[in-house]
Amino acid sequence: MNSAPAKIINTTIDKSNQFTNKATNPMDAFVTVAEMKEEARKKLPKMVYDYYASGSNDQSTLAENENAFTRIKLVPRSLVNVSKVSTKTKIYGQDLSTPIMIAPWAMQRMAHPNGELDTLEAAKEFGTIMTLSSLSTTSVEDVSKHSNGNPGWFQLYVFKDRKVSEDLVKRVEKLGYKALVVTVDTPFLGKRDADYKNQFKLPNGLFLKNFEHLLLSNLEGGLNQYMATMIDPGLTWKDLEWLRSITTLPVLVKGVMCPQDAAEALKHGADGIIVSNHGGRQLDTSPSTIEVLPAISKVVQGKIPLILDGGIRRGTDILKALAFGANAVLIGRPVIWGLSCGGKDGVLRVLNLLNSELQLSMAFTGMNSIHEITENIIWDQNKYIKL
Ligand SMILES: Cc1cc2nc3c(=O)[nH]c(=O)nc-3n(C[C@H](O)[C@H](O)[C@H](O)COP(=O)(O)O)c2cc1C
Ligand SMILES: CC(C)CC(=O)C(=O)O
Asked: Which of 40, 92, 142, 220 could pair with 340 as two cysteines, CB 3.0-4.6 Å apart?
């Protein structure tokens, strides 16, 4: 079957959800995130595509992240004035055009020569935030230089050598990053079978740019060995207090999957929680993120921002996450496919598609603004049969 993107070139979806007749950009040919994934698969070397696409082990959590969204049903509402649906929102005082933000993902120059810089440009142009990975192929300095004073958020992997991590925190704070996202679900890297088979390594000429000065910038022994050598599997909740003590930036904890850990995060001073199973790349057969969100939301009770990632491929997925208590979402692979297909324009296309779909689904459920969205828009058979 020819799986070239559908040629609906006469129909573009823009930020305000208007359908127009202008074919302005080749990226407009893509009408779904799935089409962009298929195009990326054709364009990227197998080793790179497999690294980006894979989950761990049998990849059941990877699949479940997407499937669980499909099982949740939304309630359509009629005759509500939805002529002015807005996806605008705010996080830590920063205005955003959308609750869709960009997840940290490593080594973006494997997807496109401009890598992290193009992703950042797209995020800024769309009015949202990119989270830069510790393991980026562009340095925190170069990303900051490119950003007109607001490079977005920074994701931290805490290394065994705390001095390396502390120095990096100081660097990003000085460079104007607005928040620190500390990833806590990676004491070791999950077993991604394809990476073993492909003997994954960074292609020649690419480096982990934040660690060049420490000679920690290549992956000669492979990714698993690098992570096993560098990352501290002895990290505990107490270390969150250490991190809080060395920075004035908001600290978000990424990788919370149960109410108990949400309670620990609150107790130890987290400024935000990211419900995440690392895109199904760590503990296989753990639940989907959307399934665990309601219980975590109950613990957080709106005290600090709550964000979800994992499996978001449609605007309706985002609406469901917001309904179950998330303030915003992060998207990972959709951005990877966008960057691979068309650099900055590809990432913009992904943001446009997902935000337009979100806007439509808000209109169909009678929601005019992000803060109006509650669990009432989720179909619950028992509730509706009783009415
Ligand atoms: C190729 C790839 C690289 C990633 N790199 C990082 C990383 O460096 N740091 C991190 O905290 N999470 C990383 N993640 C996890 C993402 O931040 C995010 O949790 C996940 O991709 C969300 O799921 P989704 O891809 O289904 O949207 C990575 C994910 C992928 C797919
Ligand atoms: C370089 C990797 C450790 C980045 C990552 O978090 C991932 O591949 O899931």
From this structure: 40
Report pLDDT for 2. Answer: 37
The atom of ligand 1 lying closest to the CA of 103 is 17
**Closest C-alpha among 356, 371, 358, 373 to residue 31:** 356
36 lines ligand 2 (CB under 6 A): no
What CATH number does the domain containing 153 carry? 3.20.20.70
What pLDDT sits at residue 19? 45
The pTM (predicted TM-score) of the whole model is 0.94
Residue 200 Cβ < 6 Å to ligand 1: no
Local structure of residue 240 (DSSP, 8 states): H
In a domain, 3, yes or no: no
Per-residue pLDDT of 303-336, as tens digits, reads 999 999 999 999 999 999 999 999 999 999 999 9
Domains: count for the chain? 1
Q: How far is the CA of 106 from the centre of ligand 2 (A)?
A: 6
What pLDDT sits at residue 228? 82
Q: Which residue numbers in the chain have pLDDT < 70?
A: 1-23, 215-219, 385-387
- Rounded Cα distance, 4 and 35, in Å: 8
d(CA 205, CA 354): 34
Q: What is the pLDDT of residue 198?
A: 95
Cβ neighbours for 189, distance < 8 A, ≥ 6 positions apart? 223, 224, 227, 228, 231, 282
Q: Is the CB of 54 under 6 A from ligand 1?
A: no
Examine residue 5 and state whether it is found in any structural domain, yes or no: no
Specify if 50 maps to a domain.
Answer: yes
- The first and second tokens of residue 278, run together, are 């690392």
| Per-residue model confidence (pLDDT) at position 215 | 63
Backbone angles phi, psi at 102, to 5 degrees: -105, 125
Can you tell me the distance from the alpha carbon of 127 to that of 74, in angstroms, rounded to the nearest whole number?
A: 27
Does 252 map to a domain? yes
Q: Print the domain residue range for 93.
A: 12-386
Ligand nearest to the CA of 226: 2
